[in-house]
# Entry
Amino acid sequence: MVQPCPAKIGDTLDDVVTPALIVDLDAYERNLGTMAALVERAGLRLRPHAKTHKSPEIALAQMARGAVGACCQKLSEAEILAQGGVGDILIANQVVGAVKAVRAATLAQRVRLALCVDHPRNVEELSTAARTLEASIDVLVEIDVGNRRCGLPPGGSAVALAERVAAAPGLRFLGLQAYHGGAQHIRDFRERRAAVRQAAEQTLRTVEALEAAGLDCETVTGGGTGTLLHDIEAGALNELQAGSYVFMDADYGRNLAEDGTAETRFESALFVLATVMSHPNPQRAVLDAGLKALAMDSGPPLLKGVPGATYTRASDEHGVLDLERENLLAHGQRVLLIPGHCDPTVNLYDWYVGVRRGRVEQVWPVAARGALA
Amino acid sequence: MVQPCPAKIGDTLDDVVTPALIVDLDAYERNLGTMAALVERAGLRLRPHAKTHKSPEIALAQMARGAVGACCQKLSEAEILAQGGVGDILIANQVVGAVKAVRAATLAQRVRLALCVDHPRNVEELSTAARTLEASIDVLVEIDVGNRRCGLPPGGSAVALAERVAAAPGLRFLGLQAYHGGAQHIRDFRERRAAVRQAAEQTLRTVEALEAAGLDCETVTGGGTGTLLHDIEAGALNELQAGSYVFMDADYGRNLAEDGTAETRFESALFVLATVMSHPNPQRAVLDAGLKALAMDSGPPLLKGVPGATYTRASDEHGVLDLERENLLAHGQRVLLIPGHCDPTVNLYDWYVGVRRGRVEQVWPVAARGALA
# Structure
C-alpha cells in the first residue's frame, strides 16, 4: 500500500513521475532559518507542528535549528515521530479512550510526552494507564480562547481540571494549551491582532487563576504561522506551535501585513508537480492532479509561473485549467501547483521529492501519512 | 508508512481504533446484488469503477457477480488491481508520457488492458511502447459529451483520431469512452435524463461516423451510479462504469427519482467510525475525524442515527458537531459518519473494516490507496 518513490536522486523535474509532492529545498531551508531567527529574537521556544509535514526528517531539521521538540495532533503521529528519533513530543490534542491511554503511557516510557485534556474522564483514563505502566505523562489543560472547538472556558473550570491533573498519579500538570485556529486565517492585520490579543488576555487571566490556586504553568503553548507576530507581541505564550511556515500554504499567503500588502515572510516551498494529460481545446487543459492529489478545502491550487492559466475545477483525478490565451501550455507539459492547504495535501502522498536547482537532491518518506488514530 | 489495521476479526465497533473506515457488509452485498441484477436485466456489461474502492478484493467480488472486469483512473491503480488478480482492466483515462506508456505496455503483456486517448501525440507514445515490448493495448477514443474535461468533440475529430489508433502498430481500436460526470450530480430527474439523452445522441452520432469510416466500436463505455437508469434507457453505451453504487455517497443520495423522492436503490454501506474526543458544552461535541479522515468536497458527512447532531465544521483533525439538545452524545462515545464523497475518503485509509451484525468479520487493505500516478 506504500507507493513507489516517484523520483531518484539526480532526476530533473521532467523525469519525476506525476503527480508528485515537490519540496523546493532552498525555500524550505530559508523558511526554517527565518523562523528560527524570529523565535530566538523573541526569546520564545519553538515546537513546530509536525501535522504539517508528518516527517521525522523535517522535525529533526527543525530541532537542529533550535526547536525544543515537535508537536502533532494524533497519537499515531507521535509514535512515528518517536520511531524517527524525536525525543520530546507534545500531542496538542486530546487522546481519548482507555486503549489509546495505554498507548500514550507506553510511548511516555521512552520519550518526553505531553498532551492536552479538557474532560475529567480523560484525566482518569490517562492517570490509570500511566500509573499501571509506571510512566509519567505531562498534561496541559486546553482552554478555548475563541476557536470554538475543544477546550474548557478560560478561568475557573480550567483551574478545577488542572487541580485534578495535579492530583492524578502518573500525570504532571505542565500548563495550558491556548490555540486560536480561527485567528490564523483572518485576512486583515488589525482584526487578526485584536483576536490574538483577546485570546492572550483570556490565557493570561487563566494563568493567574492557576497561580492563585498554587499551580504554576511551566508551558503556555499555542500560536501558528498565520498569527506569528501577534502571538509574540501579545506575550501570553512561551512556546509556539507554528508549523505551516515550513511550506507555506497559498491560503496563509492571503493574510495581509500591517500596510495592507500580502505577508511574504515565508516562501512557498511545497508544490505538486502535475502533467497536462489532455488539452482538448485552446481554452482548456486538464492536469493529472485532482481531489486525490490536492486538498481543496482552502480553495484550488495556484499555478507557479503560468500567468493566464487558472485551476478552476477538480474531480477525483483531474484538474481542469482555464487558459486565457492559446499556447500557454502544451500536451504532456509539467506544471508546479501551490496547494491551497499544505497539511491535508501532504497526507495524500508517500514521498517528498526534494529539489534544488532543478535536480532531485533528496527523497523523504511522509512517514506519518495516514496516521489518523 | 502503512498504518496498522485498526481492528481484528471479532471486535465490536467499540473495540475498533478510530477514525476507521467501516463497511456494512450486508448493505455492501445487497448493493452488489442490486447492481448485478439491474445490469443483467438491461443486457449490458458492467465494468465497475475501482477508483471508488481501490481494492482487488472488491473488484473480484464484483466480477464474481458478473462484472466483465474493472475500470480505474490511474495506471498505478491498474498495476495494483492486476497484482491482486484482476485480469481485464480499463484505465478510463489518458496515460500520458513515454515512461508511463512503457509501464502500460508492460502491464498489457500480462492482462487485457484498455485505455483512453484524446491526442495524437499520446497515440504515438503508446504505439511506440507497445511495439517495442511486443504488447497489444486496446484503445478507446474519449469524446466530450458535456463533461468539459478530457476528450475530443463528438464527430469528425474523434474519427480522425480513431483512424490513427487503428493504423498504429501495437494498438487496437476498441471503441469510445463517453462519460458525462457533470450529469451524475444533477438533482432533478428530468434535467438529469435530458443531459444523458443529449450525451447519448452525440455518442451514437460518433459511433455512426466511425462505422461510416469502417471502424466498428466493440465497446462504448461510460455512465455512472448517478445516471444509471438514464444510461440504460438512452441506449448508447454497451458497458457501464458505475462504481459508487458499491458504497453510495451521501451526495448521490441527494439525486431525486422521477416522483421527486430521494433515490434509494442503493444503500449507504461505507462509514467513518469516529469518537467524541471533546464535549466542552451541551451544544458542541468534537470528533476525531476531520479533513484528513473525510473528503469534504461534496459537503460534510451525515451522522447515522443521531438526529439533532450536525457535522458543521472540519479542521485537519477535528470535526465539530452542533447539537440541538443536551445529552445527545457522551464524551468518548462512537458515532458512524456517512461520507459526502466516498472515493477520496477511501483514499485516506489503509484498511477497510468489514462489519456484520456489530462484529468485525473481515479486514481488507485499501491496496491502491495513494495510487496517484
The mean pLDDT of chain A is 97. DSSP finds nine helices and 17 strands in chain A. The CA atoms of residues 295 and 345 of chain A lie 5 Å apart.
